[in-house]
């Protein structure tokens, strides 16, 4: 039987495979160019994870015969002078963004559907938890073995040589030293053990969000979008990382994931309350000597004036206990940063960002989780 070779593959199959590779490369390039827009897409944040998106990509230019009709007669060509109501100029020409005709050719663009998984893969490609201490593995990752009993049978790795030798010597003593030969089955002893998970550390992300009345729909959307993408990023690249959700107005409370993303806004703002609660969570449940702790707080910057000093002091204490403390301030107008922002900007272990547009969500992700050396003040 003749062996199959690549030359046996029909040439049209080669062309199909090449077109598929070209299409995939075009799609990936389009995703990279539109990352900021897709991260800010409200339809993604509100979806159930099964969302598909339409991304514009340049149409493929294939070799084909084209008829040049400009300046030539053709079927239906009129010989007299165009009158009123006739379209101006040359077919296929126009000025984009104006009502007048023009001579600039358009660009062939088509839209292709991509899945949320494709977007996540592109967004998370270069993101990582900063300064992650690998000596603090995930909970239960380590394994220890506790001896349970001793048996006459077992596998070689469980062989208890000391007890085996003791049994051999006892048998030889009982026989008056007349025992010849080596070990027999009755001499063998094996340690039977059961696995026990070691109490080890790991990593935790503490999500803190301002839910006071000053947080409008725009501010809430940007804050929730950041935490939505942060949660998706952690689940994909660090599935063993814990997340703690804290919401606050004048008082702070720990809530579940669903309540965190669907909570309304009301009340005043006392930021020190959520920092105190975060400190309590760290001290009682996630000691820094065993856990990589990351804390992120998003707010509109409006805080009770009399609380600013305590908020800075408490936030500073929190920043000293965690691997990274990220502070995000959302501005729907061009205004100066808040006193909290200005004070936190002076601290070494605090990364601060200002979000003014939906596209800034992706910039905040890069500022906090981007390549090592990325600027933490954006």
From TrEMBL:
<dbReference type="Pfam" id="PF04285">
    <property type="entry name" value="DUF444"/>
</dbReference>
<feature type="region of interest" description="Disordered">
    <location>
        <begin position="73"/>
        <end position="106"/>
    </location>
</feature>
<feature type="compositionally biased region" description="Gly residues">
    <location>
        <begin position="84"/>
        <end position="104"/>
    </location>
</feature>
<protein>
    <recommendedName>
        <fullName>Sporulation protein YhbH</fullName>
    </recommendedName>
</protein>
<dbReference type="InterPro" id="IPR006698">
    <property type="entry name" value="UPF0229"/>
</dbReference>
């Amino acid at each position: 039987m003749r062996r199959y070779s690549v030359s046996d593959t029909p040439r049209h199959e080669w062309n199909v495979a090449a077109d598929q590779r070209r299409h995939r490369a075009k799609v990936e390039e389009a995703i990279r160019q539109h990352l900021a827009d897709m991260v800010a897409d409200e339809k993604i944040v509100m979806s159930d994870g099964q969302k598909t998106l339409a991304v514009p990509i340049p149409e493929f230019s294939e070799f084909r015969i084209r008829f040049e009709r400009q300046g030539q007669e053709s079927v239906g060509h009129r010989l007299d002078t165009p009158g009123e109501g006739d379209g101006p100029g040359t077919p296929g020409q126009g000025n984009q963004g104006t009502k007048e005709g023009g001579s600039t050719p358009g660009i062939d663009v088509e839209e292709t559907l991509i899945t949320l998984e494709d977007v996540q893969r592109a967004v998370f490609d270069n993101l990582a938890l900063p300064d992650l201490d690998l000596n603090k593995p995930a909970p239960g990752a380590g394994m220890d073995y506790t001896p349970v009993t001793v048996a006459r049978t077992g596998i070689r790795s469980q062989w208890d040589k000391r007890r085996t030798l003791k049994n051999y010597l006892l048998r030889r003593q009982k026989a008056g030293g007349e025992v010849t030969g080596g070990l027999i089955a009755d001499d063998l002893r094996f340690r039977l053990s059961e696995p026990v998970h070691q109490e080890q550390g790991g990593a935790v992300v503490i999500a803190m969000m301002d839910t006071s009345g000053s947080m409008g729909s725009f501010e809430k959307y940007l804050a929730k979008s950041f935490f939505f993408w942060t949660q998706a990023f952690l689940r994909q690249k660090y599935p063993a990382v814990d997340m703690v959700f804290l919401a606050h107005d004048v008082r702070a409370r720990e809530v579940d994931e669903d309540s965190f993303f669907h909570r309304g806004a009301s009340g005043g703002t006392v930021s020190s309350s959520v920092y105190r609660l975060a400190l309590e969570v760290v001290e009682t449940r996630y000691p820094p000597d065993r856990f990589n702790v990351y804390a992120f707080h998003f707010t509109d910057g409006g805080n009770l004036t009399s609380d600013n000093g305590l908020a800075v002091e408490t936030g500073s204490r929190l920043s000293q206990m965690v691997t990274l403390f990220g502070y995000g301030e959302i501005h729907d107008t061009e205004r100066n940063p808040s006193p909290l922002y200005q004070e936190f900007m002076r601290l070494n272990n605090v990364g601060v960002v200002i979000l003014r547009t939906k596209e800034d969500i992706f910039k905040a992700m890069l500022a906090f989780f981007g390549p090592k050396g990325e600027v933490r003040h954006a």
